[in-house]
Amino acid sequence: MIKVLVAGFMGSMGQKTVQMVNENDDFELVGAYNPGIDVAHMQGMGLSNNVKLFSSLDDIETDADVWVDFTIPSAVFGNVKFAIEHGIHPVVGTSGMTTDQVNQLQDLAAQKHVGGIIAPNFGLSAVLLMKFAKEAAKYMPDVEIIEMHHDDKLDAPSGTAMSTAQMISEVRGDKPAPKSEESLKGVRGGDYHGIKIHAVRLPGYVAHEQVLFGGKGEALTIRQDSFDRGSFMNGVKLAIPAAAKATDLIFGLENIL
Amino acid sequence: MIKVLVAGFMGSMGQKTVQMVNENDDFELVGAYNPGIDVAHMQGMGLSNNVKLFSSLDDIETDADVWVDFTIPSAVFGNVKFAIEHGIHPVVGTSGMTTDQVNQLQDLAAQKHVGGIIAPNFGLSAVLLMKFAKEAAKYMPDVEIIEMHHDDKLDAPSGTAMSTAQMISEVRGDKPAPKSEESLKGVRGGDYHGIKIHAVRLPGYVAHEQVLFGGKGEALTIRQDSFDRGSFMNGVKLAIPAAAKATDLIFGLENIL
Amino acid sequence: MIKVLVAGFMGSMGQKTVQMVNENDDFELVGAYNPGIDVAHMQGMGLSNNVKLFSSLDDIETDADVWVDFTIPSAVFGNVKFAIEHGIHPVVGTSGMTTDQVNQLQDLAAQKHVGGIIAPNFGLSAVLLMKFAKEAAKYMPDVEIIEMHHDDKLDAPSGTAMSTAQMISEVRGDKPAPKSEESLKGVRGGDYHGIKIHAVRLPGYVAHEQVLFGGKGEALTIRQDSFDRGSFMNGVKLAIPAAAKATDLIFGLENIL
Amino acid sequence: MIKVLVAGFMGSMGQKTVQMVNENDDFELVGAYNPGIDVAHMQGMGLSNNVKLFSSLDDIETDADVWVDFTIPSAVFGNVKFAIEHGIHPVVGTSGMTTDQVNQLQDLAAQKHVGGIIAPNFGLSAVLLMKFAKEAAKYMPDVEIIEMHHDDKLDAPSGTAMSTAQMISEVRGDKPAPKSEESLKGVRGGDYHGIKIHAVRLPGYVAHEQVLFGGKGEALTIRQDSFDRGSFMNGVKLAIPAAAKATDLIFGLENIL
């Protein structure tokens, strides 16, 4: 039985984590932390009486094994530092830390022998897609990426598509895309070290990515669809036991698969 | 029984036409024309003795009902003019005529009451895709196009993708694509009156197109794959009887479907 | 401005209809009906004061042009009869009427010159898929259907897949599927007049259907994805003005597209 | 430089191998074997003078490092035995050996320290699909398989689909498919230890396979398309150097990736 504390438990992802932990026989929710909200209010959230509630980092006293963090960019570094220093293994889904901050935490974790996981994406399908794309590119280096998102997503390409391109690029190196003459500018997409990336924005779509490989007489396509952010819980569920026994602070869910 | 003459019968598409006509009980091959090749040589091509062979336009005497033309850009206009003037209904798959030339031929056809069909694409799947895309866009105006071809195709986007965009644009009018901020230039594709077009070039691929429609909570995708230019014969087979009874020179296979 | 009454407005689809009507400048919500709930309770639902609330059919007095019905199988026949008799054009999304009931209502509508629409599926993408599939089958009669739904859906195939097969079958007639030898029983799917149907059930999936056409050297695929039942509102929005001017009771959204 | 002998070099796959070896700077064609055809005839095949031609196993004298075998079921066992005994590393694409024969050859290879590769499928995309599917099933055990082939393929499911199911089943064990009620028999597909398999047969299609994984709120799909048997050469090209240094007789291309 792994004892879990959820930081940011009143947010949308925090709530999903609470629910997932409660549904899982291998996990026990022992603490819930959300700054700036008084404990009386938190008591109305329907948690079991065995769950200790905290509204300030200083107050936290817990025997939790794992600290799941879905808080905010400005708080996450302090939270994870606190967890490691108190021997609690972090599972971090909050975005916004700098590379330097991640490095500092990794040093601290190594020194304290309290490992854990920081992951920009806890969606299993997205992480598996990236892992497989990286592996396929060794054998089928001709590749393009198409990501598709709802029309409210302003930035393009998606972070996952860029990460995929970076991972592919590591194994196949620079390789120019086939020569083209665009009669309509931009039609051949964006170019990341010779990997063409295309971003589609349409209402109705949620978050989807395809990696297309072509070779003589054949094609391989890997596609993932995220219909719902609840899919992140699939990854958090895997990360909790892995973090509990980690001695390093691992970056990227793919590194525990 | 429709009597057919094949112009350019020694080329790849001409040969496929000869084979298709021979396999079809409703058609009879009565003439085969290929300029610049002596008739003695043509006799070795395995055609039936009933097929009259011609190596020059001037020599052609035929009772053909339909003239199927897979020749070359410089010859097609003269060929089709000859056919109409001699009361033979043209089915034209040769590319390269100007809009002006097509208009001239349409006028001639109307005047002589000898109609036929000129089609840039005889692939049924491509033509159906365009037809359906145009219809869907009335109800689902949010749309993007992805075309995928082999890596030797230099021009982008494909002619079919551009035609698709034009047909969609006719029904939905100008509608800007969702606002985006590209962190990698070109990633949002080419823009045709607000319709984003993406072109993929990969070895192994042949000729494929997808039209993606999105609406609140739903998506519709129409995809066509051309694995082989032999697929053009599916369209030529439909075009021959339609041309035989046409009184206008129709442009586009979709207009007989 | 079309005046709308929503029957079953407290249910999930009714609520979506209320919201859609309120967001649309061409429609005005003038009545809301939900049996068995007292009007005092209904007043707390946040509707405008101009909306008349009814909890019993007998009490309804309204100048509504259109009656949108998302109620229950046992109530829908009576509701639609009431609407037509009072000159209100019905838009019916409630399932459960028999063919005989539908016929009776169609007779009544014709007699009263008060038309409307009954549709088993208001998802635009699903209706367009069926329409296009029927048309494509004229030219590409070799076809199979794959439907994909969440793993809680017990019945297979889906109603939409069966309707698609029926519509295709009408145009292409009986045509046996290619001969196969199954080394694993059932692998070639179900057979509806020679059209093979395959049903996939997986967690994460919502409601999706693909129709695959194959021809010599080419393929055409039409796919629709329903991510959310909110997508039904796309169809209801189209149905309201069409119903308002209909003089017959039309069955199937495809017949107004 | 790896010296290669091609057995069955006059067949379709043998010819493709000859061409691939000739185009590759790391390989040298030193021998070509085809039983039952006189050497004089073989000399007309356009091979370089440095290639020794053999029409009988007994006559073969060669310094080849690797023996690529695309022959016939009745000959392959004898050929591979001959190769191993003469210190030539086999790359075997010929089908038809029994498990017992494969085991015998593996024993012989181990004893002689002359390894190689036997692969039922040299298509890289198919092999990568199987490998990834096996890995994904550890994390996303809910899975179905759809294979799609041309309408002349009589047997269903395809060998690759069955192999995929077997590999997935090894890692996820028995897990019943979701409960369904079929209103049309067979619609839920074939069942291999709880993995549903669906086979599509349509003209135009070549050889394609999809593996669909579903999890809470997400989906992962791996798809491969073989447009042309020439794609097998992508795998043979990888297998030759791997075989040349193998000390075991490896079964399955996936085991060298």
TrEMBL record, chains A, B, C, D:
Domain Dihydrodipicolinate reductase N-terminal intervals: 2-122
Active-site residue numbers: H149, K153
A Gene Ontology BP annotation from the UniProt entry: diaminopimelate biosynthetic process
GO MF, any single term: NAD binding
Pathway listed: Amino-acid biosynthesis; L-lysine biosynthesis via DAP pathway; (S)-tetrahydrodipicolinate from L-aspartate: step 4/4
Family: Belongs to the DapB family.
Protein's recorded name: 4-hydroxy-tetrahydrodipicolinate reductase
